[in-house]
Amino acid sequence: MSEVLAVREVVKTFGPVRAVDGVSFSVRRGTITGLLGRNGAGKTTTIRMITGIFLPDRGTITWVGGGDKPRDRIGYLPEERGLYRQMKVFEHLLFLAEIKGVRGAGVAQAVDGWLERFELTDKRNSKVEELSKGNQQKVQIIGTLLHDPELIVLDEPQSGLDPVNMVLVRNVLQDLRKQGKTILLSTHMMGEAERMADDIVLVHRGRVVLDGTLEEIRTSSGKNTVHIDYEGNGTFLGSLPHVINSRIDINEAELKLSDGADPQEILEKCMGKLRIRRFEVASPSLEEIFIEKVGAEALEATP
Amino acid sequence: MNKIFAVLKREYLSAVRKKMFIFMTLFFPVIMAALMFIPILMMTKALGGKRVAVVDGTGRLAAAFDKPLKPRLATASESARGQKGDLPQTLDIEYLDAHGQDAAAAAKPYLTRLSAGKQKSGGMDAVLVVPANAFEDPNAKMTFYSRASTDIMTQERLSSVANRAMQRQRLTERGITSEQLDAVMRQVPVEGVQLSRTGEQKKGGEMNFIFAFVLAALLIVPSFVYGLEIMRGIVQEKNDRVIEILISSMTPFQLLTGKVSGVALVGLTQVSVWLMTLAGFGAFAAASASMAGVNVLQFLRPTIFLYFIIFFILGYLTYVCVYAVAGAACNTDKEAQQLMAPIQMIMMLPWFMMMAIITNPDSSLSVGFSLAPVFGPVTMFARTVASEPPLWHIALSIGVSLVTILVFFWATAKIFRVGILSYGKRPTIPELWRWMKVA
User: pTM value?
Assistant: First the structure.
């Protein structure tokens, strides 16, 4: 599949801080790429360079999509709300389209269509400041899509949304992907990334520590992770033999086994102690991979 | 271009829909007029009278003090020349003929009433004692008593009335008739004539003075009001992060162009309404002034309006750019205002010197200011109203302003680029300078 965007060895320094330190990755056409990382990892700075807000100190960002004006071919949703509070929703959306070079009767129609899809039709003539945080976020998302961009860059699109709206946004993004749009999604919600992303770019301290398709990443992390749903006291699970890493929640556990260990032994040990409702041997979850890659040192560093 | 227009349209519409704009546009001329008329109203209605006693030891000044002293108000042309009439106060006079008595002793009851204060009926505000030997003794002194030592206005008025009466009496005693006296004492009034380079003569130029001030105010006020407005707007865009959307959609240059021209249009809209209102007032004033023999319209040459528009735009753009930098560099209104405070004082210089500029429009100071960057537009405009500066001065001033605006605009766009997204503390001016070189 062809690339839409190629980021190569990009560096951005703010005073003494190297926010982005030689980041490289590609965004393939028609995919959803999840840009993951902890707070302050350099996700937002990277995105701001892609959207032309910051110029990189070094490195290149190459737009290989159609058209010579990447500015107008990218739709950008900033991390924090970026709307004029005093403007009315409908007018504001027309303005957002206009600064991307789109105007005319078609836009007004598109705005109304999107407002309906996002259940905001009754808010059409409300001022932005009168809207709830979640509704403002939805308005912002519409503003990102109005000029029919090839690449949609979303920085934490689901912040401030309730579960219903989260599903709504997820469905919209998946529809867009089906229509052949390319989406770059920055998030720290691993669950969302796991549900939607084709490709994963994991940044940590300004560097890419993991890059590939979700499938590759999960397979390369091995197939020997045991996911258990249970009833009872599971605290002993972490200290079982061959368990090298574990996450134990109430009634749910994820155990990473050493190479060559037999999951069957774990199951035997559980019998009699716990009521097992699910026992699965699979790849680790993205959250587990994430914590393993970037969380360990943080946990160690914390006294 | 479409993007610039989109920003321009948004800025313009959101500004003109504000209640403050509508209020200012409709009522600013009224407020200005009120500010001009209230002093006049106060003068005619007076500040309230004063009760004054004159104890006359000579017994010969009765005629001068037999009725209350009404204030003699300055006429419009006098006040335009900077002359003042009397303080708008009527002095009610109690005259006591103390001829043949000891004047000091006769004044006693009045002094008691003076110290008793004004609240009580029959209280006094001042007492003037004229000694019996006032006409003969060259060393004689009148004494003025008051509660407030600062009441020199009343003292001055009473003493001049008394002295004039004594002078007239001394002269009539020497055989000069009353008619002769009038002839001798007659004052010759002065009429101001402005001579243009073409030799054309204009009378009543004092009116020019007022027009120059009013027009200069109209020129300068919107620049500051909307400069502040654009600064606040940018700070708010930064706080609301709209700026990220804007900057990711267009170049800082496009954004700045759209914003500044949008706000400039707002200013022009407002000023046009004001000028039309003023023209309405002017037609009325001209009608009444022409009855007084002054042709006001000769001073409001059509070129003045042309110059007004030109220098308004130039001054406006200069100031607005400076405010835009402050907005781009700061994160809160307060910070931005602190940064602007000293700069504002400097930019206001021509206004502080308006009096000097208008009264001496061709002095080297005025010429220097009118050709300087930043100060040029306001000063040059004031000069074109007050006199007829050489055309090359005007052309040079416009040229200097254009270059200034271009330089400012360029610098602003650069600082915009860096400053607009650097969150954190307010930058110092050396830092701004560094940004300009880096960006």
Answer: 0.71
